[in-house]
Amino acid sequence: MSKDSQMRAAINQKLIEMGERERLKELMRAKLVECGWKDQLKAHCKDVIIEKGLEHVTVEDLVTEVTPKGRALVPDSVKKELLQRIRAFLA
């Protein structure tokens, strides 16, 4: 395991132990709904299903197809806020 991976694992463990991970997840969920991300991703899912046909799309296919766009659609302001909150928690 690389040093970077070890650091991420340690931070994640601390976030879980202190209950901060769940609070951050709820905050991000609310922020993503607020900015319209959820609706955009839902529309993209519908487009993929229409394009490929309902009978020809599995959940795994949909996740593989939608994940890159979902990540790209997260506003920078939401990413920055999450990073700031993690840094404040670790300080």
Automatic annotation (TrEMBL):
Q: Which GO terms describe its biological process?
A: chromatin organization; mRNA export from nucleus; protein transport; transcription elongation by RNA polymerase II
**GO annotations of cellular component type:** DUBm complex; nuclear pore; nucleoplasm; SAGA complex; transcription export complex 2
Q: Name one Pfam family in it.
A: EnY2
- Spell out the Gene3D superfamilies in the cross-references: 1.10.246.140
Q: What is its main location?
A: nucleus
Give the record's keywords alphabetically.
Activator, Chromatin regulator, mRNA transport, Nucleus, Protein transport, Transcription, Transcription regulation, Translocation, Transport
Q: What does this protein do?
A: Involved in mRNA export coupled transcription activation by association with both the TREX-2 and the SAGA complexes. The transcription regulatory histone acetylation (HAT) complex SAGA is a multiprotein complex that activates transcription by remodeling chromatin and mediating histone acetylation and deubiquitination. Within the SAGA complex, participates to a subcomplex that specifically deubiquitinates histones. The SAGA complex is recruited to specific gene promoters by activators, where it is required for transcription.
Homology family: Belongs to the ENY2 family.
Q: How does this chain assemble?
A: Component of the nuclear pore complex (NPC)-associated TREX-2 complex (transcription and export complex 2). Component of the SAGA transcription coactivator-HAT complex. Within the SAGA complex, participates to a subcomplex of SAGA called the DUB module (deubiquitination module).
Q: What is this protein called?
A: Transcription and mRNA export factor ENY2
Query: Source species, please?
Result: Neogobius melanostomus (round goby)
Recite the lineage of the species. Answer: Eukaryota, Metazoa, Chordata, Craniata, Vertebrata
